[in-house]
Design a protein that fits this description.
There is one protein chain. The chain has 317 residues and is mainly α. It has 10 helices and 6 strands, in the order ββαααααββααββααα. The longest helix is centred in the first third of the chain and has 24 residues. The termini are far apart.
């Protein structure tokens, strides 16, 4: 017997005059705001320029949205193409459907472009903002709750999620409560953010190692969450496509983490004056900058990033 359950919202759209306000979009926006705020605090603590994270986000967010949608459509193409389907709905981002790996991948490309324009070493900034990215994912997952989508197998656990009949997949109409995988993943993402922050303070992760730790931790959780989900998905052998993606990315992140720990030890230079900050102050977030090897590989300078005025003048020319 179900002793308790999590109700689903009656709807995820509110009308303000002729303008529809969608809960899914609000969750994405709230996640972006949280990521920028957390990332900016960590970046400034490392000696970076205040506001630089927001400037980079102007590039990263649009790229991430496009990439997330492309990944979703590419991996769930049957929802939009074929008999009885409407391809134009592939453009309806507000109805839900953003693939996390497309969002992260394309968002990273946009962030790299933003870093290049501001003269900021990419990996240095990525390590600073990655806990905020995990928090953004955790907040964004609540959009699935409003849309009653991406839930798991039927369950009689006290925290089972109530799903309306019209949102239940074929063959599951007789069940009323399902695993709230949106909640599982949200809590997991918050835990990943805390793990990266703790490990960064404890071991001073630099040169992209904080990003690698995030990828490893997230993919572990995503693996078991995928095993619970019953939404339609492509399979390769016994596993869903996202499971294979998680396995491959975990292996790549682990390999990079081990390599960087061996060949890129120590701290990076300060983002403002090219000197290493003292890690003994207990903050763990006060050390940054671009390692000379990192700056050489990326083409970015290890000197302090230019002011907005300097950047604007360069763009005007």
């Amino acid at each position: 017997m179900v002793l308790a359950s999590i109700p689903s919202p009656a709807g995820g759209i509110w009308q303000i005059g002729p303008v529809p306000i969608r809960a899914y979009a609000l969750c994405i926006i709230a996640g972006v705001v949280a990521a920028v705020w957390i990332g900016d605090r960590r970046w400034v603590a490392r000696g970076g320029t205040p506001g630089a994270v927001a400037d980079v986000a102007i590039w990263a967010v649009p790229f991430g949205l496009v990439g997330g949608r492309l990944y979703h459509v590419a991996t769930d193409w049957q929802l939009y193409f074929g008999d009885g389907r409407s391809p134009v709905h592939a453009l309806y981002v507000w109805e839900g459907g953003l693939g996390v790996w497309g969002a992260i991948g394309f968002g990273a490309v946009g962030a790299w472009i933003g870093c290049r324009r501001l003269g900021i070493p990419f990996l240095m900034l990525a390590d600073a903002v990655i806990p905020g990215v995990a928090v953004a994912q955790g907040i964004g997952r609540w959009g699935n709750w409003f849309n009653q989508e991406l839930f798991g197998r039927p369950t009689t656990l006290p925290w089972g999620l109530e799903i309306d009949p019209e949102h239940r997949p074929a063959g599951y109409g007789q069940f009323t409560t399902f695993h709230p995988t949106f909640l599982y993943e949200s809590l997991w993402c918050f835990g990943v953010a805390l793990l990266v922050i703790w490990a960064d303070r404890r071991y001073t992760l630099r040169h992209g190692r904080a990003v690698a730790l995030y990828v490893m931790a997230y993919t572990v959780g995503r693996g078991w969450i995928e095993a619970l989900r019953i939404d339609q998905a492509h399979h390769l052998g016994p596993l869903r496509l996202n499971d294979w993606t998680s396995i491959i990315l975990f292996a790549l992140a682990l390999g990079y983490f081990v390599w960087a720990s061996k060949y890129l030890p120590g701290q990076e230079a300060s983002a403002t004056d090219g000197t290493a900050a003292d890690p003994s102050d207990g903050s763990g977030d006060s050390t940054v900058g671009a390692a000379s090897a990192e700056a050489t590989d990326s083409g970015d300078s290890a000197v302090s990033p230019p002011s907005r005025e300097t950047t604007d003048q360069r763009e005007d020319r």
